[in-house]
Design goal:
The protein has 156 residues and is α+β, with helices and mostly antiparallel strands. The protein has 6 helices and 4 strands. Helix 1 crosses helix 2.
Length: 156
Amino acid sequence: MSLIDPLDARILLALDDDPDATTLSISRSLGVARNTVQARLKRLQAAGALRDFGQRVDHAALGYPLVAFVSLEISQANGEAAAAGVVALAEVIEIHSTTGDADLLVKVVARDTAHLYRVTNAMLEIPGVTRSSTAISLAEVLPTRMRALLEVAARG
């Protein structure tokens, strides 16, 4: 079951088009009451469907242009502690628990390859992390996108 219905998706598309849009301008452009727009946005935020604003900030603008994906094998006995140790590293911007050879797939940003080397070594020093494999991203072919899915949802 989806948390986002077609009207919610249309509201979010309007915000994607103009992040500074007011609830009043969105309500007028969509032909719905301002209170409806405001209530739906609050509901989506409370349900966790809307992510933090910080996810819109470009890591390169903060001085971290290099992106790498680090596959980590962790000891099952220390899994939670190992994951917490990885989370504590500021350069770690995303973590997924995965199937296959690695237990965690970690997206890391760094200033350069020397900095990446220090970050990956810091991961290996975390109790419970037993092995790592790093792949450097050469280019971001498609950034994370939701617009195409919102357009599908808006059509109902």
